[in-house]
Design a protein that fits this description.
Structural class: mainly beta
Distance between the termini: 48 Å
Shape: globular
CATH class: Mainly Beta
Strand content: over 45%
Number of helices: 1
Radius of gyration: 20 Å
Order of helices and strands: EEEEEEEEEEEEEEEEEEEEEEEEEEH
Length: 303
């Protein structure tokens, strides 16, 4: 067994998207190889309705899958194929945009005016870029939850974990998407596929993810002058943690426990030509997509 080394820790940064939704972006619109096959990850979390109610009006997608996971509040959605509905707390929507779709997502807060959810973009390989679009809307009650004797809890949204299979069928990248909670002070070893690209995103509490090159439990270190002490390697709220290869992820929960998403997928390792929510392999393909969007031929009809 080998512990996956921590290769990168960073904090999600404020961003503005849609018609003026304030959110935090963990990664996106940078180096597409960083989290390949994943392209973008947003945490939209607000207590002020004016920061999210304008939502994400009609916009196009092609060449990717979008995964929306709601923790609180409601999102009303619709698309150019006639699909519509709503996502409530605990629900997930896995949308395969494929050849092209026009889509809108309009959030509404809970009874206290709060909204919290995540959106992840997964790339599609070249031979699936123009596949037919499809939706998978999954209700919270249909997502299996594993509870361990130590109080650890894992929701299996996609992929296989500890003998359970998630209800979402990810058509590309062989993805695994987990919502993990580990109680205060508990040290947990989580199995991981050796070669899949894997990241964790912390959204409650804090903890330390073990690094093969560093001992566990080392929380403090002094600066050279011996006067300033700071926390090292602690991942807290809105922190992104990227891992190298290995078949185990080890995490030590902090004094308030830790809750995080653990996401992995098989790298596609193909060129990326990117213009917002349209992701192709070449600039020519990207120009074609934009031209079709402008002349009204973006939506493909199934044979």
């Amino acid at each position: 067994m080998s512990i996956r080394p921590v290769t990168h820790i960073s904090k999600a940064q404020p961003a503005l998207e849609g018609a003026g939704v304030k959110l935090h972006r963990a990664f996106g619109f940078g180096d597409p190889s960083m989290a390949d096959p994943f392209l973008l990850f947003d945490d939209f979390r607000n207590d002020r309705p004016e920061d999210f109610l304008k939502g994400f009006p009609w916009h196009p997608h092609r060449g990717i899958e979008t995964i929306t996971y709601v923790l609180s509040g409601t999102i009303y959605h619709g698309d150019s194929l006639g699909n519509q509905g709503e996502l409530e707390a605990g629900d997930i929507q896995w949308m395969t945009a494929g050849s092209g779709i026009l889509h809108q997502e309009m959030p509404k807060g809970d009874a206290f005016g709060r909204m919290h959810g995540f959106q992840l973009w997964a790339n599609l390989p070249s031979d699936m870029k123009m596949t037919d679009p499809r939706y998978q809307d999954v209700k919270s009650k249909d997502i299996p939850v594993i509870t361990e004797d130590d109080g650890s809890r894992v929701k299996v949204i996609c992929g296989n974990f500890w003998g359970k299979s998630g209800p979402v069928d990810g058509i590309a990248a062989q993805p695994r998407y987990l919502d993990v909670f580990i109680p205060a002070g508990v040290r947990k070893v989580l199995p991981a596929d050796t070669w899949q690209k894997t990241f964790a995103y912390v959204f409650e509490g804090s903890g330390i993810f073990a690094d093969a090159s560093k001992p566990m439990g080392v929380l403090l270190e002094k600066e050279v002058d011996g006067e300033e002490i700071h926390i090292r390697d602690v991942a807290g709220d809105r922190h992104l943690v990227m891992f190298g290869t290995g078949d185990e992820i080890v995490v030590q929960a902090g004094e308030k426990g830790i809750r995080f998403l653990l996401v992995s997928g098989a790298p596609i390792q193909e060129p990326v030509a990117w213009h917002g929510p349209i992701v192709m392999n070449t600039q020519d393909e990207l120009r074609t997509a934009i031209r079709e969007l402008n002349n009204g031929t973006f939506i493909k009809k199934s044979a």
